[in-house]
């Protein structure tokens, strides 16, 4: 009797936990759900009040955003892809050898590492003005390469901290063995550390891509036409398209899908990476 | 650790510095140089017409920045916004950890669903809310009208609460994720021992688990405060800092000084002050966090 009562109580508690979970999941993801749904609605359905929950989905908004004669949106997507991948590659190329040297040869770990990890906590706007002027001088304004450089700056701290943490856990007997076989420092990096670091390289690449894709301030300041990324291009929609909410919703959906899909792969690393600004100082 | 460094001679170290060279040069160019430029501009008679000015104006730009009442409004907004959002995010995060921990420990993949808002660009999140909260075709006002409530979320009276809510809805998952990780790190033996002493449910959480989670709470609060303080994206997209200067954060204030009002010197001087303040906050904040984390 007592057992079954306790049992029922446990079941009720679990049910309550599920209810809270579903509610929280719906509330938190509401803007995403609503936008995706709106993107499949016809103009008539969007303007119906109250908004219909059940409707016949259409792709017309996507056609308009992607294939209309004067559509700029495909270019924004392309810009973001180039900028985010370029930024990820640059950040990895710079941070990976540095992390190796810091861990294995104990150089720069005491002064450079804390400086770099703290960069994430600085308000980006501080650097907006001098970088704008610098880019103007160097002819990098409104270029995808310029934005990729910024993306790399933003991602270096995360990349470095995750690399340092990972390489520390690789046993250095492996280095010693390679050394006996005659491998130099580059050789060890290329043939020992690099192959073993594939998982973290993959994670850093994904995280860097997401962060760069979602960046806004520098995209806003440093681009005007040619290199405009999705985050900035999407804001043009609200003004230029006026009341074309369907097209705006379709654009939004295309703009959030890449980081959402990648994020699902990388979310175990995300909490860890976001702590970098505070933990390793 | 010690064994590793003993085997290194100075030649080895010098050679290894080459691996740092790329990173150092890159950061010197992209951040070191801009920092110096900031300092230089903040003391010189600079303007868009005269970018290479060498006329020294002392602290004039700093005085201008501090004397501008809008700076204080913006600073006040940023501080209040950061404190309020941090408190709510950490609070809700803790409640959710308490309620959802058993569920998510058995099914870790569920956590991913709650993390999705974090992956969305804050700027795009702002645009999405603009869509949803739109007075005429937005979903939320549409349904609220059904029950007889008519509300303009971005009007003067509600805009502050709306912006806070958007920030909280997007970043509570972050607080939750870190706090959940900390909660999962609490040793099970400890919980059992406490349970034997009669502490269960809420009492167990408040008196046994919460104290252990304190360092994680401090870290989360610290990070969320910094991010809240420098807020730019979703506010810029939704209100542009308006109506008037009602929702102008310090980041938006600097942006406007430079790109709208052409007050280059003042904007740069304010950037330098913000940099110093951020470094000071980091230094002391970290000291506090590290001291609490170190057992």
UniProtKB/TrEMBL annotation, chain A:
<feature type="transmembrane region" description="Helical">
    <location>
        <begin position="76"/>
        <end position="99"/>
    </location>
</feature>
<feature type="transmembrane region" description="Helical">
    <location>
        <begin position="216"/>
        <end position="238"/>
    </location>
</feature>
<comment type="similarity">
    <text>Belongs to the binding-protein-dependent transport system permease family.</text>
</comment>
<keyword id="KW-0762">Sugar transport</keyword>
<dbReference type="GO" id="GO:0005886">
    <property type="term" value="C:plasma membrane"/>
</dbReference>
<dbReference type="Pfam" id="PF00528">
    <property type="entry name" value="BPD_transp_1"/>
</dbReference>
<feature type="transmembrane region" description="Helical">
    <location>
        <begin position="250"/>
        <end position="270"/>
    </location>
</feature>
<dbReference type="InterPro" id="IPR000515">
    <property type="entry name" value="MetI-like"/>
</dbReference>
<keyword id="KW-0813">Transport</keyword>
<feature type="transmembrane region" description="Helical">
    <location>
        <begin position="20"/>
        <end position="40"/>
    </location>
</feature>
<feature type="transmembrane region" description="Helical">
    <location>
        <begin position="188"/>
        <end position="210"/>
    </location>
</feature>
<feature type="transmembrane region" description="Helical">
    <location>
        <begin position="145"/>
        <end position="167"/>
    </location>
</feature>
<feature type="domain" description="ABC transmembrane type-1">
    <location>
        <begin position="77"/>
        <end position="266"/>
    </location>
</feature>
<keyword id="KW-1003">Cell membrane</keyword>
<keyword id="KW-1133">Transmembrane helix</keyword>
<keyword id="KW-0472">Membrane</keyword>
<dbReference type="InterPro" id="IPR035906">
    <property type="entry name" value="MetI-like_sf"/>
</dbReference>
<dbReference type="GO" id="GO:0055085">
    <property type="term" value="P:transmembrane transport"/>
</dbReference>
<feature type="transmembrane region" description="Helical">
    <location>
        <begin position="111"/>
        <end position="133"/>
    </location>
</feature>
<protein>
    <submittedName>
        <fullName>Multiple sugar transport system permease protein</fullName>
    </submittedName>
</protein>
<dbReference type="InterPro" id="IPR050901">
    <property type="entry name" value="BP-dep_ABC_trans_perm"/>
</dbReference>
<keyword id="KW-0812">Transmembrane</keyword>
Automatic annotation (TrEMBL), chain B:
<keyword id="KW-1133">Transmembrane helix</keyword>
<comment type="similarity">
    <text>Belongs to the binding-protein-dependent transport system permease family.</text>
</comment>
<keyword id="KW-0813">Transport</keyword>
<keyword id="KW-0472">Membrane</keyword>
<dbReference type="InterPro" id="IPR000515">
    <property type="entry name" value="MetI-like"/>
</dbReference>
<dbReference type="Pfam" id="PF00528">
    <property type="entry name" value="BPD_transp_1"/>
</dbReference>
<dbReference type="GO" id="GO:0055085">
    <property type="term" value="P:transmembrane transport"/>
</dbReference>
<feature type="domain" description="ABC transmembrane type-1">
    <location>
        <begin position="75"/>
        <end position="285"/>
    </location>
</feature>
<feature type="transmembrane region" description="Helical">
    <location>
        <begin position="267"/>
        <end position="286"/>
    </location>
</feature>
<dbReference type="GO" id="GO:0005886">
    <property type="term" value="C:plasma membrane"/>
</dbReference>
<feature type="transmembrane region" description="Helical">
    <location>
        <begin position="162"/>
        <end position="182"/>
    </location>
</feature>
<feature type="transmembrane region" description="Helical">
    <location>
        <begin position="112"/>
        <end position="132"/>
    </location>
</feature>
<feature type="transmembrane region" description="Helical">
    <location>
        <begin position="18"/>
        <end position="41"/>
    </location>
</feature>
<feature type="transmembrane region" description="Helical">
    <location>
        <begin position="81"/>
        <end position="100"/>
    </location>
</feature>
<feature type="transmembrane region" description="Helical">
    <location>
        <begin position="202"/>
        <end position="223"/>
    </location>
</feature>
<dbReference type="InterPro" id="IPR035906">
    <property type="entry name" value="MetI-like_sf"/>
</dbReference>
<keyword id="KW-1003">Cell membrane</keyword>
<keyword id="KW-0762">Sugar transport</keyword>
<keyword id="KW-0812">Transmembrane</keyword>
<protein>
    <submittedName>
        <fullName>Multiple sugar transport system permease protein</fullName>
    </submittedName>
</protein>
